[in-house]
Amino acid sequence: MHQNKPMQAPVFSATILGSSAATPTSTRNPSAILLNMDYKYYLVDCGEGTQIQLRRMHIKLQKINHVFISHLHGDHFFGVIGLISTMHLMGRDKELHLFGPPRLEEIVQLQLEASLTELVYPLVFHPTQAGKEEVIYESDIHFVKSFPLEHRIETTGFIFGEKPRRRKIDKAFLLKEDVPVPWMMRIKDGADYVSPSGVVYPNAEITKQPPAPRTFAYCSDTRYSPDVVQYVQGVDLLYHEATFMEELKEAAREKYHSTAAQAALTAKQAGAKHLLLGHFSARYKKLDGILGEAKAVFENTSLAKEGEVTEV
Ligand SMILES: [Zn+2]
Ligand SMILES: [Zn+2]
Fold it and tell me: For residue 154, how far is its CA from the centre of ligand 2 (angstroms)?
């Protein structure tokens, strides 16, 4: 009796475009991450200069069809109008879906009107709500949820997830056996196959196990709260802001930001597999202190760095 090898998991990675907090530095850009989920590209936040970062990294702008903005602090959305405009000048015809706080639509409309720009492609706006967790996007294979963060203005985090996949029927078996169509779905859902002559084929022998669905969570900007922890339970990769270190814990609380240790505590309490820290204050030239502080609480931590790709 043989067990089929599991199917290979599709690509699911996060490319850091910007890792800086409010003011950019000569080496760190404002917040933006590009997710590649099975060659669907989702842009998460779009700080100033994001389109230039995409160019530097040889990522084609027009591949992006969905942009998600967490809140209306400039370091998270000042790049939106630039990206929209360049897509227009390049003659885009596909829809662009923009998700974000309701007033983002007004801001973008005003910028377009003032420059007498009539976009050559449809821009579809989807307002988010900061008060509750909700599914804001779904395809056959992916979903995106927004959830409330604790920041000075209304802010949402996002969960990007893969939907569970069906089992895959072994090609060799399909060539050998003439499986009637109605059986196909049942086998993919886990049923054993019974041939017309009564032979039973156990499901594990004729199908491949699908890869386990993975999730990526985005938490920027927020101060530490157990209420945030509940929304990111069990994620594979947690991106979390770490604006300050513990020495500035009070400032972090007042400014509605997190310390590196607090980001690590969220990862630990949520049972995340991997923590990626970002949104670093310009005061920290070197980031070893931030990393060390987080690792003391949650070992599997790394630092966001412009141009680096992390597998989910
Ligand atoms: Zn910020
Ligand atoms: Zn902010």
Answer: 9
pLDDT by residue for the chain (312 residues), tens only, comes to 455 666 788 999 999 999 999 999 999 999 999 999 999 999 999 999 999 999 999 999 999 999 999 999 999 999 999 999 999 999 999 999 999 999 999 999 999 999 999 999 999 999 999 999 999 999 999 999 999 999 999 999 999 999 999 999 999 999 988 899 889 999 999 999 999 889 999 999 999 989 999 999 999 999 999 999 999 999 999 999 999 999 999 999 999 999 999 999 999 999 999 999 999 999 999 999 999 999 999 999 999 999 999 999
Check 75, 192, 227, 236 and give the catalytic one.
75
In this structure, what CATH number is given to the domain that contains residue 32? 3.60.15.10
**Confidence (pTM):** 0.93
Distance 63 CA to ligand 2 centre (A): 27
> How many C-beta neighbours within 10 Å does residue 167 have?
19
Active site residue 75: yes
State how far the Cα of 191 lies from the Cα of 194, in Å rounded to an integer: 9
In a domain? residue 277: yes
Distance from residue 140's CA to the centre of ligand 1 (Å) = 32
Rounded distance between C-alpha atoms, residue 32 and residue 82, angstroms: 14
Residue range of the domain that includes 111:
12-165+210-311
Give domain status of residue 233, yes or no: yes
**Tokens read off for 95:** 């829809």
Please tell me whether residues 146 and 191 are part of one structural domain. Answer: no
Read out DSSP for 23-79? Answer: S--SS-PBSEEEEEETTEEEEE---TTHHHHHHHTT--GGGEEEEE---SSHHHHTT
Same domain, 219 and 279: yes
What are the residues whose beta carbon lies below 5 Å from ligand 2 (ion)? 73, 221
Inside any domain, residue 221: yes
